[in-house]
Amino acid sequence: MQQLEIKTALQIGRPSSIVFEAIINPEKMKNYFISSGSGKMEEGKTVTWRFPEFEFDAPVNVGKMEKDRYISFSWEGSEGKELIVEIFLEPQENNSTIVRIEEKGMENNQEGIEWLIRNTEGWANFLACLKGYLEYGINLREGAFDFMRE
Fold first, then answer.
1. Rounded to an integer, what distance in angstroms lies between the CA atom of residue 27 and that of residue 11?
2. ω into residue 80 within 30 of 0, thus cis?
3. pLDDT tens digits, residue range 25-45?
């Protein structure tokens, strides 16, 4: 059965070093993605993220990292399923960075299709919020998902 995977990308008008730091540092991430994090992402370390609209902790197992270029981690991307996320940073000549995110892999069934829709939307939102924060200093996520609280 074919495995489903997410692929999304966006160009951000900042150098890859700034984008990289904004992704691995919870003090930066809480300006666009999480409400808190247990520490900076480091290769081989497990950190915990908390999202502002949900009352649970998300353990994130950091895999390989290449400074200013690449971040990988695994997490429970769907209930009971450990999924791999890869973030590729591609520096551009104009001091911008193309950020590509891939998450894999769920089975091509109803559960997988629901995951594909939900997490594709989530990663596109992540990129838009990252861009808003780094380019304009605004937190697009703040209050955006209050309706999802139980």
1. 22
2. no
3. 999 999 999 989 999 999 999
